[in-house]
Records
---
Amino acid sequence: MFPFVSRLIRRCYSTKDTIFGLSSGSGKCGVAVIRVSGEAASELVRRKTCNPKLPVPRKAVLRKIFHCNSRELIDRGLILWFPGPNSFTGEDSAEFHVHGGLAVINAMYESLGSFEGVRLAEAGEFTKRAFYAGKMDLTEVEGLADLIEAETEAQRKQALLQANGELSRLYNEMRERLLKCIAHVEAYIDFAEDQDVDDGVLDSVKREVETLTVDIQAHLNDHRRGERLRAGVRTAIIGAPNVGKSSFVNLISNRKVSIVTNIAGTTRDIIETHHDIGGYPVILADTAGLRAKTTDIVEHEGIERAKDYLSSADFLILIIDSENLNNLLKANSNNFETCLDSYLSSFGIGKKQFSSVRSLVIVNKSDLLDKEDLIRLETIPNIRLLSCYSKQGIEGVLNEMNQHLKQLCGNPTKESPNLSQQRHRYHLKRCVEYLDKYRRYLEQENYPDLAIATQHLRNATRCIGRITGTIDTEEILDVIFSSFCIGK
């Protein structure tokens, strides 16, 4: 992409039309908020209130609201006036807070749409105008979208940090460091012969590039916590038939999600349910019971799907029947690790495959154990006893799950915001590749062409710019002028 493309798009983006749209939830509600933005916003407010005087900016006023043409009274509600550029979109904007009945909303739509040059907003167009007005960058736009979609407390916190610009501040800092590196190298190219630039400039740039590479790699090496928190932790519930997998899902869901019978192999397909566990988003997947062999074609397909899901899951919950585990312990000298290896291998699952993903072992049907067996199992570390029938042990299971989820999703802060989008990860990886190219180019035996080396730094800068939506090379000249006093 050419350096001036982003700037050109901003100039060519047409905001001549005034747009309106429902900013509150759809359907019947107590109050509906209809937002208007554009050049005609001020005239719309005057026409709809039959008052030549605009409200005091950013203060709610109660007024009668009329049809733009017929002057028929539509409703009586609050009006807020936001003159540009101090508004969400950077344009003159207004909000009409009316009663949330469908008839009122339809009348407002018909009235606003009858005004010349005013149209219904496209999906996301208010935010798009805010972006083109420089009110938000792309990471903040994505954070705002995530904040609207957030369903758990942890998702809300991560999205709010991003919407408030914490992630963009991190990327802008990286970009500014690269701009300074480019400025130093270009100043060396242009002015080294006049001895206005220190010969140690290139060495300092090399050190800064190496430091920046380490910082970006550390940001990338987050085990995808932010992306996992944003999308939900994919959790596979596995085990033999009739160990209580479906009962566990129903218990967590507090409703009948999966069919539970005493017939082995009832669950054939994967049943996913979404949950909020300790503020973290979790996708629980009830899978087919695992067997070593089966002659049922449908059950065989279900087992294969369960194994496929297991291989892509973020978190595994293995449920074992308490009686079966007791028998295995007796046969293996009470060595739980040996029992677990034997149990998993009987289904064609290696211990390495199981241990490579964060996992939890739940021993179900603990209510059927006698006191001696119960005491034996309670001494085994890293397992949780549960009775899906009596619900005994569910709090301990949820607490254990919550500890695992904290590790899987992390705890984003202002100082260390999560990388939450695959798009960000892609551009950061490309940035690191260009920084590596810069270092390798300078390490060549023949004295390299610094202009080519600088181009690798420019490409790295553009990668960061594509994350935030900022692609402009004029800033490099500004850095050169301020840092090196060119033209003295």
---
Amino acid sequence: MDIIANYGTTLVLVAALFGFLMAWGIGANDVANAMGTSVGTKSLTIRQAIIIAMIFEFAGAYLAGGEVTATIRNGIIDSNAFADTPDLLVLGMIASLLAAGAWLILASYFGWPVSTTHSIIGAIVGFAVVSIGPEAVQWSKFGGIVGSWIITPAISGVIAYFMFISVQKLIFNTDDPLNNAKRYVPFYMFLTALVICLVTIKKGLTHVGLHLTDGEGILLSIAISIAVAFAGWLYIRGQQYNPQDDSKMHFANVEKVFGILMIITACAMAFAHGSNDVANAIGPLSAVASIVAAGGEIGGSSHIAWWILPLGGIGIVIGLATMGEKVMATVGTGITHLTPSRGFAAQLATAATVVIASGTGLPISTTQTLVGAVMGVGLARGIAALNLGVLRNIVVSWVITLPAGAILAIAIFYVLQTCFS
């Protein structure tokens, strides 16, 4: 308690610095792999991806991020165990931010798409075990996270597989692929818009003062999705298609139709990621700020101060702009060859899985969801379409993320204790 009383402002400033570093890592890794399929298929330039991420990450965090609060009581650790020693919780959260941020930046440097969710969870578990003991960890939830390594990629992979199979049957394996693309792509736009609308209305609109019943929410989602599909239909028919382009690249005009859809799914992916993963940076930071503000009292939830969300958003955008290219390359071109139609199937499957998981409370990694979806698209073309060497490296990086976060957090926690004692 003396540490909080004597160094409260310093602790918040240090936490803000490390929270910014964590957000930087999220931008370099998680947002980069979320945008990787769009950039890899050349549907978006890196600059366009940054702009989309900037807008929709903020929108997802604000509208669908759980009313912009981060609950610490019901997280991976039992905060009641720290009731008598809140200074340990504050130092541990600060150590976790630095540990997870450092691991994410290192992984991004090597082009490994790892999980920001699991990075911060591994870090929090590490400091909790050495500061209080194993009883401070809610191991049942931790087990669910390990199980999600298999469940999450499997769900998104299955959805992406059948999504791309439907594209093949309805469009590519027909006598007139271009006209069928014009006919069916607006329907896929409808599905994409519906995913975004449902998660927004389900999780976020009460925060901005709009209260709807489930039936009203579904009807509004359908109406907005129909409007998006109609606008897409008009846009597709207004485009010029040159038959000679197909002689240079097979199905070039069909992929051009899917190009606009990739932009919509990129927005959906950024929105879904913002609603799910931005809390990895701002959650621990808001916990530190609220505990210090309360003089060491640990509440059930920590309300995010006005300056924390912009700090996280700025860090994410800078991370994507400065270090995102390697992870984009791994996801967009390293696992399997992607075209706009294949990238669409992967991104829509990922966004849909994130929505499903958010609604059921499944601990989810956006990274693992997207990699699973890209694998599903590759498998739809046969196992030979996958780069198994890249996949092996990705899986290894997933496995070592939890212990890496824990070990780094333990070391940093002891250093912080020495500095502030």
---
Amino acid sequence: MRVLIVEDEPYLAEAIRDGLRLEAIAADVAGDGTTALEQLGSNDYDVAVLDRDIPGPSGDEVAQRIVASGTGMPILMLTAADRLDDKASGFELGADDYLTKPFELRELVLRLRALARRRGHPRPPVLEVAGLRLDPFRREVYRDGRYVALTRKQFAVLEVLMAADGGVVSAEELLARAWDENADPFTNAVRITVSALRKRLGRPWLISTVPGVGYRIEPMPACAGEPRG
């Protein structure tokens, strides 16, 4: 899941972003309405978390623009305004959920996941290839019936690779889909994560490197030798 946090209090925005990342939710931050609209126009998000009282176009105006776009992106309004009238006006603007400050991060995570499920299929399809079985809903991976414990980032990378159905996925695409906009494209984050993922999955190796192109899941895994890249 990737969310946009529109919040003009830097410390709160950073705390939310960092907390969501620990829950395997990629999060970008916009401190004002203008930046929020720019990011919404250039990135795909599963949910928008809007503070109503922000500089530039207000959170209400951003919500109206999201609704008018027809994307169906869920909106969670996050604000200190807790009167019933405030909540009613938020829902009338198109909000799908409303959480008042202060709040527990765990509750925000639960609400975000519920909104993301509601937007699409309640249970995303189980992916299966080369003896691997990945269940996105239960967040479980099995290889030939054996449970494989993965970190959140390893799980996200494996899900992208399996969804490619044997196709090659570039490092840039993995960064865009499994990380967020703050990921440094010049780091070795993808290579290191893929290398660790290979070891978790075990032999014979399932993930191959296509030099200069990217990575792919091998339908017929290699039986010998160390993987390159």
